[in-house]
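Annotators were shown the component list below and the corresponding predicted structure, then asked to write short factual statements about the assembly.
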Amino acid sequence: MNILLFGITRDIVGRHQLDGEEFKDLSTVGDLRNHLQQKYPDLQKLSSLNIAVNEEMREDSFIISGRDEIALIPPVSGG
Amino acid sequence: METILEISEHIDPSTVYSELSHPESGGICVFVGAVRGVTKKEKVTSLFFEAYKSMALKEMQKIADEAKEKWNLNKLVMKHAVGKKNIEEPVVIVGASSAHRDDCFKACRFLIDTLKENVPIWKKEFFENDEVWVSSHP
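Structure shown to annotators:
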């Protein structure tokens, strides 16, 4: 599992990507968000923090697996 | 419906007329978003755009499909720039063509409004002494 970081989440974590090995015991999108927000408290200050699994936004109850491409989606601001 | 979706370093507004022109279209409506040199009375020096490109293109396709369901369109364009952009440079181009103007006007508004809400693209504003990811904090 790779976790891609964009925009302000990359600035907060200080990397473009996290190796999912550390997160392999987490089973849902909600668990992953909680874990990351504990580890990087600045993520809690964002207006929103969504998580995409294989390029689709997913709810907290969505089950993640080791083969997924996961991305943190902070508030979008295109246009 | 012919649809052109693009995320790239440079987008060119001068080609959009030919991209949307169609023998059954009597109306072509285009919105071009550009870099504004001031925000909340502060001088902006440049913008930086970053995209989750593969997902952004999928989301743009969903918006295009929804627009096609809602209105009778013959052609549709959605383009967004990434990288550093200076004042007055174009950063987003959306447009549609249709038999009559009502459909393409409404679609064009929907395309830009929904792109800004849903597509995973991020904008950083650079000021003379600061830089800020737009909308990131309440």
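Statements collected:
1. The CA atoms of residues 36 and 97 of chain B lie 27 Å apart.
2. Chain B touches chain A through 29 residues (CB under 8 Å).
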